[in-house]
Write a structure and sequence with these properties.
This protein is α/β, with parallel strands linked by helices and 426 residues long. The chain folds into two domains: 2-19 and 232-425, Enolpyruvate transferase domain (UDP-n-acetylglucosamine1-carboxyvinyl-transferase, Chain), CATH 3.65.10.10; 22-229, Alpha-beta prism (UDP-n-acetylglucosamine1-carboxyvinyl-transferase, Chain). 31% of the residues lie in helices and 27% in strands. It has 14 helices and 24 strands. Strands 22-23-1-24 form a four-stranded mixed beta sheet, with helices on one face. A four-stranded mixed beta sheet has the order 2-15-17-16. Strands 4-5-3-14 form a four-stranded mixed beta sheet. The radius of gyration is 21 Å and the shape is globular. The structure holds uridine-diphosphate-N-acetylglucosamine (UD1).
Length: 426
């Protein structure tokens, strides 16, 4: 087990390059399974979730290899077996994204019920119902879904009762090879979904977002290989933006599309954090420059599916709220237990009242103090690192492996901005 030792109080300054998005790359890897031709993904982040996905796909019999510093070549010529074991699913919920493409390409798959982050119940009933709408038969036995469509999937109408990101993606990945047309209503609008659609269209799929919440897919007989650069990680960018604001710093974040951060930037604006949008130039990727201000205003945040405020930035934003002058509020609408991090943040001096499993109030400004704290999941991990950077004294943070799931070399990037953080083997 590894720990971060963080001595806070240093204003972060400089420029940071954002990696490819975790929530996009895993789905793009899954898309590559839809063709026997090679696919090349660029801007692939070096995070442990990519390694888990790579191992899972390799175990199935696909060839997944690193090419150069940041690319992956995936060739899914044939499968040795159509089985995603509990071992993979327990490590990463996103392994369930293989359901749609394996079913569409090979007509059957046995896939474990996923584990993933300890946030909420996070069922997969909507994924399963979507496959059934496309003509698949899915049975659940002993922790595994046995899905089959022996004579192929057929187009259908899928209407999600509420927005599900991976549910939408699984449906799209299955429908592209189905016979006939599919309409997906109440489809997720996250930029990562559109990144997946862009790659699938480059592979020959026919997908159109005919209205913000509606996708129309015309099934094609087969797909070909494609080359695709993974979009920049808006959640990593948001984390570094908060790091600048809470440490009294000045950080330029490059490699992210500012328009993907709309609702988050509105919150920063309400709080009085100066942000400059940096358009792309001949030499630079687009990004943001975030500077600290002397005081911040309190704010009310409610998480929502995109284009609303991202639930994945809720916990990191709480750290900024501890520095606002007054009472801020959080309403978490997506997950029922995504406020667990507040206990650890409280140990560091944050004044947080949890009203129920979805609501809390944060009073500020409060000085944060270095403490021994433990990370419970990925976004809570980023949150505690941010709090430790803002705190006086030294913090010892355990559970670092959760952060490695989604942040590429977080400590090296922070050190390059002047932070005092290092990793130890415990
Ligand atoms: C994705 C992101 C995750 C983010 C979340 C919401 C990935 C790998 N992960 O997760 O970082 O926090 O979107 O933006 O992209 N639900 C059901 N049944 C289902 C599916 C979902 O009840 O079959 C519920 C979930 O429990 C949750 C809500 O729907 O309450 C939204 O979840 P969903 O959008 O599916 O999240 P993920 O796609 O798993």
């Amino acid at each position: 087990m590894q720990k971060f030792i963080v001595t806070g109080g240093t204003p972060l300054r400089g420029e940071v390059r954002i990696a490819g998005a975790k929530n996009a790359v895993l789905k793009l890897m899954a898309a590559s399974v839809l063709t026997s031709e090679p696919c090349l993904l660029r801007n692939v982040p070096r995070i442990s979730d990519v390694m888990i996905m790579r191992e899972t796909m390799t175990d199935i019999g696909f060839d997944v290899r690193r090419v150069g510093a940041d690319a992956l070549r995936i060739t899914a010529t044939d499968a040795d077996w159509l089985f995603v074991p509990l071992e993979a699913a327990a490590k990463m919920r996103a392994s369930f994204i293989l359901l749609g493409p394996l079913l569409a390409r090979f007509g059957r798959v046995i896939i474990s019920n996923p584990g993933g982050d300890r946030i909420g119940r996070r069922p997969v009933d909507l994924h399963v119902a979507a496959m059934e709408s496309l003509g698949a038969r899915v049975e659940y036995k002993n922790g595994y879904y046995f899905a089959q469509a022996p004579s192929g999937l057929r187009g259908g109408h899928i209407e999600f009762p509420y927005v599900t990101v991976m549910g939408t993606e699984n449906a799209v990945l299955a429908a592209v090879l189905a016979r006939g047309s599919t309409v997906i209503d109440n489809a997720a609008q996250e930029p990562e979904v559109d990144d997946l659609i862009a790659m699938l269209c480059a592979m020959g799929a026919r997908i159109e977002r005919v209205a913000p919440h509606r996708l129309e897919i015309k099934g094609v007989e087969s797909l070909g290989g494609a080359e695709h650069a993974v979009m920049g990680d808006r959640l990593e960018a948001g984390t570094f933006a908060i790091a600048a604001a809470v440490t009294g710093g000045d950080v330029t974040v490059r490699g992210v599309a500012p328009e993907h951060l709309g609702a988050f930037l509105e919150v920063l604006d309400c709080m009085g954090v100066p942000v400059e949008i940096l358009p792309p130039s001949e030499t630079d990727a687009p990004g943001l420059r975030v500077r600290a201000a002397g005081t911040y205003a309190p704010v009310a945040v409610e998480t929502q599916p995109y284009p609303g405020f991202a639930t994945d930035l809720q916990a990191p934003t709480a750290v900024l709220m501890t520095q606002a002058d007054g009472v801020s509020t959080i309403h978490e609408t997506i997950y029922e237990d995504r406020l667990d991090y507040t206990t650890e943040l409280g140990k560091m001096g944050a004044v947080i009242e949890v009203l129920d499993e979805r609501h809390c109030q944060i009073a500020g400004p409060t000085a944060l103090h270095g403490r021994e704290v433990e990370i419970a999941d990925l976004r809570a991990g980023a949150t505690l690192v941010l709090a430790a950077l803002a705190a006086s004294e030294t913090s010892v943070i355990s559970g670092v492996e959760h952060v490695d799931r989604g942040y590429e070399q977080i400590e090296s990037k922070l050190v390059a901005l002047g932070a005092q953080i290092h990793r130890i083997d415990a």
